[in-house]
Amino acid sequence: MTHARTPPGHRAGSGLRPDCLPFSDVFAQSIATIAPTVGPALTIALVHESAGAGTWLTYLIATAAMLLVGASINVFARRSASPGALSDVVAQGLGPRAGVIAAWALCLAYLFTAMAVACGFANFMDVLLAPVMGPLPMIWELACVFIACVCACRDVRLSTALMLALEVGSLAAIVVLAAIVLISRGTLVDLAQFELRDVTPGGVMFGLVLATLSFVGFESATTLGHEARNPLRTIPRAVTTSTLFSGVFYVVMSYVEVLGFSFLTRPMHESPAPLDDLAAAAGVGFLGVAISIGAAVSMFACTLACINAVSRIIYAMASQAIVHESWGRTHDRAATPHVAAMVASGVVALAIATASLAGVRPLDGFAAFGSLGTYGFLIVYILVSVAAPRYLARRGELRAWNVLCSALAVAMMAMPFAASVGLPLPGSPFPVPAYPYDVLPYAFVLLLAAASAWSLARPRGW
To answer: Nearest CA to 274 among 18, 11, 37, 16?
Structure first.
């Protein structure tokens, strides 16, 4: 792919609104897509199942890995900006064919992540309202996607401000609960965690797969390349600061949650709502409702952020004739890629409705769709990390530090991918995951290969 342009047939002035988003809005895009609230609400407990007392260490490693990937992303973000984001930078470093593969990987990653968090939204809405209305998972899932689509089709300045406000409220409730848990326990020291008691390298590595899921989408600020003010400065800042903020939050919250559950009889990974259990044990059960509301809000904000991001990727793909040019049309008044947003929302709605009708529970949908999305991000992060030094070498700007960062990033991204596949050997530290997670990596690769082959094989300008 090349630098994104307005698709053929677009009228002048019908593209994205340029230079309209300040740093706060660009930062909000990354934060809302990461959805830090989801980590303590769901993902940390899943990481703890394998990493145990090393959960905080797993998140620390994941933070370092994301910062390394971010360094490769910022190699490009400091030099060019476009709504095509990472797929464009892969093309700059590895050529147009690799750019097409990256575009589809990123598009699928955001679509599957939107499906996952819409399922998460339904889970928490049922937690809140099922006692009154009964479980209505498919209704909540479709409502989440529909409202997110409407917001994404409107002025992006409204949607990014909404995302930041929603996520800040969610995080505030969790921070209050964390402080109460620490005060009620009367200690900040958990020797089991400091000593990494009963922690195995294999457990930490497998936990890294899910910990990576907690960060995916941190680079989504790059999709606002045409709309951000001074994008060559604001986008790199947003990528780095959102990663640091989320990483510190995850490390602290994983430590606090493991400490809190060490006083409870119920294992954390068996709790459907870990923060609710901690609130009840601390004598502030009313906070459980606030936390569930915050988690639902964060899931919605993440759905909106994913649709915002994928719509701009589809817009750029249309400009390169990777998909039909009509998908790149923008709204005459709001200047948003509304056709792409509606296409993406339709795909997400169809997938989660099909899963719900097949009897898939929202939490199972969150885990399965989230895993599929993670594979897409891992592939793109690896491609970007390989592309960065080649891009710098052509410009005569390559330094040893760039090569080291890229090599470490590739290695750290390959490890969780390998752990998700597993090694079918006796006594393997990375056993093959149980069904359906054993087939999900292969399913994603086949889907990506089919989409990429279709785009590369058909004539341009269709």
So the answer is: 37
